Write a sequence for this structure.
């Protein structure tokens, strides 16, 4: 996926021009470095990290990329501790407690091999190699940075290229400590990117040298949407943007390389430019600064034009830089609150077309052999899929633009009880009706001709089987809020037709709905408003009332999309609702007043090679056992952005016990 240059131009158009030449001529305050390292023994220096010495917690060490000399280790006084010839190292980044065994994880770019390398940091700052497989950059790599997901803790490695390419790789380690990478997404900015930095709170910044500094969402499940921090020539960067450092208080320090200064920005104030400082060690002023690193109060800047010696690093304190710029210190930005996580164990084969395609699933449990159960999923561009519990396609029916699907057992047709499957068909503007054959696990059309809905765009759909009358019904709605209920009736010829029994309109767009057969309740999501409940019987039953309003619960972010029912004995269980606006799932009790229980997300499992879930449209849950892999039932969710690797949309399968563990929910006894 590529970021459109039209989008970039639109961003640039909204940025006021700054007289960069006049700004460059203005005096820039100078901050004194606390130390500078000895000159590196390699051909240059660009990239540094600060790490605690595992052998001496009171001692901090600087690991520097020394190009031909590999990685050099310095103390905070600038004295060389060691040199490790581990490649031609041009960039470094580090995350504490992230290597197998709990040590710091060091990522390094070997320029000669055009490949990243991983190390765990041992005593004395010794980089100990970690086997890394699976990462094959499709570019000439110019820089790298690490990011830890604030959603699910997954570690990602960003690689940036000399033609503006960006690759994001998910990292996972096995029991032996070996690490593998899986591509999460790729995009491009069109010209060289030399540096990047991520804050582990959801942001990653890229320095596009001739253009400026950009911010993107670090989560691979997020939209690739550019935000400009500053622009070369039109903003506060004179000619070339280089290294980026992120302070504990969230502010950014960016190398305005040709102006020989460091610019300070505030992401909390729409990336406001706060001022600039120069850095000097005595009479030696940093010129053409490369990498910029901030670790706690320590700032390390690469000085490739160090005079009169070879390249080295200048060491300073963040408070000293702020003081020189006339800025106050601020508290450390807190770690974002995270929701509980459940991780999938299976994902389905992607649908056959790109874009917004997969939508809504329904789960059928095989009563004879639960492990042979299936998931039926809509492809709203072309038809209907049937998947086995390994996610493989058993059947595809190219019968139209199917949006939502549901099923009910026990429908009497042709002298036998069948499982009836219905789907809203936006091509025919009708209700598609099928019978599921338990022997083949495939669908057969049993509609008595076109079952016209009378709706302009049939959208959401759910079914209901009355415990009172044993009749089977289907609800269909559309985007303007119209909703109708039909009774499904068998014909003497063994077909099924739909008989309209009532209209039940809403004020605005609705889609997701689910009916509770045992209690006779219908739950419907009005996407921008909340979740409603009312009687599912065509006559009588409770009047409509609000179960949960979006504006009343901060965990709910519109759109309210798919809804599923986890029904347990004794009237207990849970309603699960897709809160699409924050990529989460809200859980309510089935019984009583449907009290809110909590929310969770479906996170990535890189070790299993399955990405997380975002922008969910439809979902389904069941409390029935689906065999050894799903002994307490499962949840199936549509994945609006199927990444790692980037593919067409699909569905993810999550064992219910993982959802239950995340929120402390009950599970049925087996």
């Amino acid at each position: 996926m590529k970021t459109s240059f039209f989008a970039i131009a639109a961003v640039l158009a909204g940025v006021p021009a700054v007289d960069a030449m006049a700004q460059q001529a203005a005096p820039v305050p100078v901050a004194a470095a606390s130390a500078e390292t000895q000159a590196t023994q390699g051909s240059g220096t660009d990239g540094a990290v600060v790490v605690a010495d595992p052998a001496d917690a009171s001692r901090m060490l600087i690991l520097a990329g020394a190009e031909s000399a590999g990685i050099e280790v310095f103390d905070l006084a600038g004295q060389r501790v060691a040199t490790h010839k581990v490649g031609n190292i041009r960039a470094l980044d580090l995350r504490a407690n992230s290597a197998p065994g709990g040590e710091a994880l060091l990522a390094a770019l070997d320029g000669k091999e055009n490949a990243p390398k991983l190390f765990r940091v041992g005593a004395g700052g010794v980089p100990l190699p970690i086997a890394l497989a699976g990462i094959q950059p499709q570019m000439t790599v110019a820089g790298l940075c690490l990011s830890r997901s604030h959603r699910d803790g997954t570690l990602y490695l960003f690689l940036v290229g000399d033609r503006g390419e960006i690759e994001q790789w998910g990292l996972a380690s096995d029991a032996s400590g070996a690490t593998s990478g899986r591509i999460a997404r790729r995009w491009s900015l069109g010209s060289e990117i030399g540096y990047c930095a991520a804050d582990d709170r959801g942001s990653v910044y890229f320095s596009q040298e001739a253009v400026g500094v950009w911010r993107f969402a670090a989560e691979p499940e997020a939209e690739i949407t550019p935000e400009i921090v500053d622009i070369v020539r039109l903003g506060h960067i004179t000619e070339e943007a280089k290294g980026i450092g992120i302070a504990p208080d969230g502010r950014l320090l960016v190398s305005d390389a040709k102006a020989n200064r460091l610019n300070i920005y505030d992401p909390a104030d729409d990336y406001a430019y706060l001022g600039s400082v120069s850095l000097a060690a005595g009479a030696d002023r940093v010129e053409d600064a490369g990498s910029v690193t901030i670790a706690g109060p320590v700032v390390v800047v690469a000085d490739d034009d160090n005079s009169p010696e070879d390249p080295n690093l200048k060491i300073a304190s963040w408070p000293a830089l702020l003081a020189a710029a006339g800025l106050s210190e601020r508290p450390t930005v807190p770690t974002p609150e995270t929701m509980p996580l459940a991780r999938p164990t299976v994902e389905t084969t992607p649908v056959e077309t790109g874009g917004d395609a997969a939508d809504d699933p329904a789960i059928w449990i095989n009563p004879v052999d639960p492990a042979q159960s299936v998931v039926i999923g809509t492809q709203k561009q072309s038809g209907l899929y049937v998947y086995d519990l390994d996610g493989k396609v058993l059947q595809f029916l190219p019968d139209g633009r199917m949006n939502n699907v549901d099923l009910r057992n026990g429908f009497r047709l042709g002298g036998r009880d069948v499982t009836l499957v219905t789907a809203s068909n936006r091509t025919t503007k009708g209700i598609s009706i099928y019978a599921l054959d338990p022997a083949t696990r495939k669908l057969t059309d049993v509609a008595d001709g076109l079952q016209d809905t009378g709706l302009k765009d049939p959208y959401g759909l759910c079914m209901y089987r009355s415990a009172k009358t044993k009749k089977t019904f289907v609800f269909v709605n559309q985007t303007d809020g119209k909703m109708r209920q039909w009774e499904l009736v068998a014909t003497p010829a063994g077909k099924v037709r739909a008989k309209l029994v009532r209209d039940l309109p809403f004020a605005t767009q609705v889609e997701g709905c689910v009916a509770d057969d045992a209690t006779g309740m219908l739950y419907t999501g009005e996407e921008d408003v909340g979740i409603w409940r009312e009687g599912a019987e065509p006559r009588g039953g409770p009047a409509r009332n609000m179960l949960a309003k979006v504006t009343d619960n901060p965990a709910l972010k519109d759109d309210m999309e798919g809804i599923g029912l986890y029904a347990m004995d004794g009237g207990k269980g849970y309603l699960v609702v897709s809160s699409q606006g924050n990529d989460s799932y809200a859980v309510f009790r089935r019984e009583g007043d449907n009290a809110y229980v909590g929310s969770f997300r479906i996170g990535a499992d890189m070790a299993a090679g399955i990405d997380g879930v975002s922008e969910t449209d439809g979902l389904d849950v069941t409390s029935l056992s689906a065999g050894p892999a799903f002994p307490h039932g499962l949840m199936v969710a549509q994945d609006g952005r199927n990444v790692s690797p980037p593919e067409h949309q699909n569905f993810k399968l999550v064992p219910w016990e993982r959802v239950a563990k995340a929120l402390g929910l009950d599970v049925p006894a087996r």
The chain has two domains: 5-324, 359-588. Residues 359-588 form a domain with the Neuraminidase fold (CATH 2.120.10.30). The chain has four helices and 52 strands.
